[in-house]
Amino acid sequence: MSETVIKIENLYKSFDFPLFKGLSFSMKKGERISIIGPGGCGKTTLLKILLGLEPFDNGTVELLSHDMKILGGKESSTLKKIGMAFQQGALFDFMTVRENIIFAMEHLTTYTKNQMEEKVIKLLQAVKLDNTSNLYPYELSGGMQKRVGIAKALSSDPQLAIFDEPTAGLDPVTSTIIINMIKQMIEDRSSIICTTSIETAIRFADRFIVINEGRVVADDDWRELLASKNQWVAHFIGDRLHGIDIEYARDLGVPEKYV
Question: Which end of the chain has fewer CB within 10 Å, C or N?
Fold first, then answer.
């Protein structure tokens, strides 16, 4: 039986309004999934809850078999096994690219200084930023900052890699390059993308988890969801594919009748 990496059952979370109203899903080791939903549905908040950065009202949240409701030393050791690339990159402006990546490894790994230096070189080569080691984040474009954020997230060789809107604000060509880089770097590692971009979600994973009005309203292969009997799900995905370039659609594997 496959090991469960994430288990969320009947999650409830409210601010001034109810955000999650019994949200549930699970993820097995080695799976790759795309979490999608309309803006404001709580995707980023869900990640914060999963990482112990945001409390929740009720339900069960387990990460790598650790109950995130119970805080303590085990939680700290569990989080060291997670690589997280935040939407804005989460880079320190006062540190160079090299220093940002090494900072993550110093706090999440037991690598030696030489191992860290070698890792920085390999990671920057992987994201095609070999010559940026001594640059500061403000000297990089938005796409380059995102690629450094990806390198930083994967610098500790995490068991689970999470990416929040990794292509937000980027053009289709740059978005494709970044998603392909992520997939190549994570290999068969458990991984999640949260995104509002259907194209990004399709390129990243077959399995979609769709969130709306506080619950998971669909959990299936995106091809099945295009023909879903749930009209909201079918329209949410299908409407976002209308009008995209036909060659781009073919590259994604989207049937032409949905374009």
Answer: N
The pLDDT confidence band at residue 71, using thresholds 50, 70 and 90, is: low
Q: Which amino acid is at 208?
A: F
Domains located in the chain, CATH noted: 1-31+41-81+196-259 (3.40.50.300)
| pLDDT tens column, 86-107 | 876 678 999 999 999 999 999 8
What is the H or E stretch that residue 141 is in? none
- Find out whether 26 and 7 touch, Cβ atoms under 8 Å: yes
Alpha-helical runs (H) found in 14-112: 43-50, 73-79, 97-108
pLDDT of residue 73: 46
Please give the model's pTM, rounded to 2 decimal places.
Answer: 0.90
Coil vs helix vs strand at 11? strand
Residue 10 predicted with pLDDT over 80: yes
Q: How far is CA 188 from CA 86, 151, 158, 160, 205, in A?
A: 21, 17, 12, 10, 12
Rounded-to-integer distance, Cα 97 and Cα 100, Å: 5
